[in-house]
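Re: the request from the purification team.
They wanted to know what the chain is likely to look like in 3D before they choose a buffer screen. I agreed to run a prediction and write the result into the notebook, where they can find it.
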Amino acid sequence: MNKLSTLLKEKIKVGCTYKNPKSGTSKIKSFDNEGITYIRGASFLFISWRDIDSAYEHFKGTYITTRDLKNFNKHAFEYPHPCNSTFFMMLLENVNLIEGKISGYPFGIKIKEF
């Protein structure tokens, strides 16, 4: 597990709710050593720490969009559900690891390094 996963595990709390870029919310249902389960609408979604860490390591210091994440790892950020890309960005925002964001489609952020 890298520094980002460790930081997120310290900062996120079950029940935390994040406003989605377009509409609605994502609420953390649970997290364990494998990853985070969250609720968006009526769906229960999962993203692994491995996928979070690899995306961060690949893109840190750059501007990315949801499309970039999907192209980087379709299994994690497009299938089974594309919401993981915006959820990843909201996690980074929650721990102050973004420098700015661009609304619209595709949604984008600049990822800070720590």
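For the purification team: DSSP finds five helices and seven strands in the chain.
Please add any questions underneath this entry.
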